[in-house]
């Protein structure tokens, strides 16, 4: 068994696609219209694993989403975590693109993490295991 798909809820799929591709560096995998409301089955993947796990940029319209995301953000809990080779270098790259971090790079034993605001309603952790 392996993880095939995971998702983050986003306020605006077009904005999220720009952020996750142009800023974070992911590649668009699927973009399929669903329903009459303009929602899309919109996924991105790592350029290092284009056939790997997909991240679904899921519309946040369900009534349970707002309280869930608000509670996570208030408690500083990331909605997702992405592995990087060098947290400090990725932090500096993203910061130079205007990304806001809620947690600067922090070492915790063999792991270094940082947490950013994805501008789509989520906190996202980047992590490096040494």
Write the layout of secondary structure elements.
Elements: E1 5-10, H1 13-23, E2 27-33, E3 40-45, E4 54-59, H2 65-74, E5 80-83, H3 87-96, E6 101-108, E7 111-117, E8 123-129
Parallel strand pairs: 1-4, 5-8
Antiparallel strand pairs: 2-3, 3-4, 6-7, 7-8
Secondary-structure-based class equals alpha/beta
The 3D shape can be described as globular
Task: List the helices and strands in order.
Answer: EHEEEHEHEEE
* Poorly predicted segments: none
Number of helical segments with 4 or more residues: 3
Query: Beta-strand percentage?
Result: 35-45%
> Quick one: how many beta strands?
8
User: Helical amount among residues, as a percent range?
Assistant: 10-25%
Main sheet? 4 strands, mixed
End-to-end span in angstroms?
A: 26 Å
Concise summary:
With 130 residues, this protein is of the alpha/beta class. It is built from 3 helices and 8 strands, in the order βαβββαβαβββ.
Task: Please give a structural write-up.
With 130 residues, the protein is α/β, with parallel strands linked by helices. The chain is built from 3 helices and 8 strands. It has helices at residues 13-23, 65-74, 87-96, and strands spanning 5-10, 27-33, 40-45, 54-59, 80-83, 101-108, 111-117, 123-129. The strands form 2 sheets. The protein has a 4-stranded mixed beta sheet with strand order 1-4-3-2, with helices on one face. Strands 5-8-7-6 form a 4-stranded mixed beta sheet. A hairpin with an 8-residue loop joins strand 3 and strand 4. It is globular and about 50 Å long. The two termini are 26 Å apart.
């Amino acid at each position: 068994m392996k993880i095939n798909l995971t998702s983050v809820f986003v306020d605006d799929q077009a904005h999220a696609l720009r952020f996750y591709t142009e800023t974070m560096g992911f590649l668009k995998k699927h973009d399929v219209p669903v329903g009459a409301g303009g929602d899309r089955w919109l996924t991105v993947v790592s350029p290092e694993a284009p056939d790997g796990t997909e991240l679904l940029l899921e519309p946040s319209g369900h009534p349970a989403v707002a309280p869930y995301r608000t509670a996570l953000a208030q408690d500083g809990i990331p909605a997702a975590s992405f592995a990087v080779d060098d947290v400090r270098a990725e932090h500096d790259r993203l910061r130079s693109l205007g990304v806001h971090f809620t947690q600067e790079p922090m070492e915790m034993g063999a792991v270094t993490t940082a947490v950013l605001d994805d501008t789509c309603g989520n906190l996202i952790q980047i992590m490096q295991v040494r």
